[in-house]
Recover the amino acids of this structure.
């Protein structure tokens, strides 16, 4: 972003407040631009930010774990913009009629701390996760990959399928979920999109003959969704579901036999598939491959693994894309998230204007 655009965003904040994009408006923004367009441009934003990896102040996300799930904050910043995402992961939420994952985020001005943009990130996270998966696969999978197995057909699955179709070139999808209703939902949502979809009776059946395998399961457990006997030479494995301590999807022997790539190694060591591997287990951060500093796939027969846990920089990129799109399309609303004061040193003056406190006839005291 150039200095002129940054100044314009800050001026809009001073004049009218924080730009707010609700969940319904985010959905409309995506519909108006088209899902393939949004996936492609979100992937381009992520790639652009990964290419300037050293510009960012990075940290692993801060997590509060409970027996039912996790709540996390994911911050990152460069010299101009700061962002964070609030996100949860509660696999049992569906029994209450609530989403497993819910999120919102902020994009702020570093020089002033002004919150320029407040947005839903539940829907946006699904897009950015799929865009990240496709970017990694485009970088690491065999170029002739056309068949993908998709294990776990929940809320993320359609986004993954369509990202791999439009950004990687997948034409055939083999799907499996322990809940047949989830697979039926996926098939219904993908009708008319040009993908050949086959519902399989097991993970092993779905994986057989696939070029790419994406696992996006929700159970918070050390699971063995994929085992070594399922893996074929040349496969690319996109492990998305293992994204917190105590939650994995791949048998450890798969990692030992593959070349493993991660987003941000300090976070992946705690949360990813490699959490049960020793500290010296070899991994490559994806930005190094994108910048040409490290090799990706070494041969057509090599098995590659993208151990995806989701990193704050991807949300930074997604927020940039959503804010730019909202401004361009004239969407969202300006809200007074932060007080606009005639005298910035007189915060108490807000109470004198309209609050009942200003009309109290006698002082009050706290009870002893």
């Amino acid at each position: 972003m150039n200095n002129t655009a940054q100044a314009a965003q800050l001026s809009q904040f001073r004049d009218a407040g924080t730009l707010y994009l609700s969940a319904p408006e985010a959905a409309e923004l995506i519909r108006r631009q088209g899902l393939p367009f949004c996936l492609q441009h979100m992937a381009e934003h992520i790639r652009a930010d990964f290419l300037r990896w050293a510009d960012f102040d990075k940290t692993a996300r801060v997590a509060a774990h409970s027996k039912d799930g996790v709540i996390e904050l994911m911050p990152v910043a460069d010299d101009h913009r700061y962002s964070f995402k609030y996100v949860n992961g509660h696999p049992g939420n569906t029994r209450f009629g609530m989403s497993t994952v819910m999120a919102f985020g902020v994009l702020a001005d570093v020089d002033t701390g002004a919150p320029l943009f407040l947005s839903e990130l539940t829907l946006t996270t699904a897009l950015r996760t799929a865009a990240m998966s496709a970017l990694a696969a485009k970088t690491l999978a065999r170029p002739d990959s056309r068949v993908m197995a998709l294990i776990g057909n929940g809320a993320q699955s359609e986004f993954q399928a369509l990202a791999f179709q439009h950004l990687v070139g997948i034409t055939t999808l083999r799907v499996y979920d322990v809940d047949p209703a989830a697979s039926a939902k996926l098939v219904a949502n993908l009708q008319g999109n040009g993908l050949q979809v086959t519902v399989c009776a097991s993970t092993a059946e779905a994986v057989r003959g696939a070029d790419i395998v994406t696992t996006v399961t929700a159970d918070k457990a050390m699971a063995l969704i994929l085992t070594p006997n399922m893996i074929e030479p040349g496969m690319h494995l996109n492990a998305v579901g293992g994204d917190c301590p105590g939650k994995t999807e791949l048998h450890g022997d798969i990692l030992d036999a593959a070349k493993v790539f991660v987003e941000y190694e300090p976070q992946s060591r705690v949360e990813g598939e490699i959490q049960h591997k020793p500290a010296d287990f070899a991994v490559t951060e994806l930005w190094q491959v994108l910048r040409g500093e490290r090799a990706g796939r070494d041969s057509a027969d090599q098995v590659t693994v993208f151990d995806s846990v989701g990193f704050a920089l991807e949300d930074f990129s997604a927020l940039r894309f959503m804010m730019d799109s909202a401004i361009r399309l004239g969407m969202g609303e300006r809200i007074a998230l932060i007080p606009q004061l005639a005298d910035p040193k007189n915060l108490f003056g807000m109470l004198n204007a309209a609050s009942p406190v200003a009309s109290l006839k006698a002082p009050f005291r706290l009870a002893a």
Summary: Residues 355-368 have pLDDT under 50 and may be disordered.
